[in-house]
From TrEMBL:
Protein's organism: Halalkalibacter alkaliphilus
Superkingdom: Bacteria
InterPro entries the record matches: CHP03829_YokU, Znf_MqsA-type
One family name in Pfam for this protein: YokU
Name the UniProt record assigns to this protein: YokU family protein
Length: 90
């Protein structure tokens, strides 16, 4: 796949650990097994825009005060939401 950073066709799908600041800015959490990309050419690890948006939306729509310091991507996405959709995204 084409790397979004260097443009070379050496990006591969991976699962990785990311660190995310909560929307209220009180702390950051570790999210393990997050879908991502890794480029063998430039060494960059990153998430596709869709994954970033999913994480951001989920963190806005759940009770983040109940999150531990670390959670898997799958567990995070299964958390019960206050709303079904982020109505504030344009």
């Amino acid at each position: 796949m084409k790397c979004e950073w260097c443009g070379q066709h050496e990006a591969e799908e991976i699962n990785c650990t990311v660190y995310w600041e909560l929307p209220d800015g009180t702390r950051a959490i570790e999210i393990t097994d997050t879908p991502g990309m890794e480029c063998k050419s430039c060494g960059m690890e990153y998430q596709a825009e869709e994954i970033i948006q999913e994480i951001e939306d989920q963190l806005l729509l759940i009770d983040t005060t109940k999150l531990d310091k670390s959670i898997s991507y799958e567990q995070l996405m299964k958390k019960k939401r206050f709303l079904k959709y982020n109505y504030f995204r344009f």
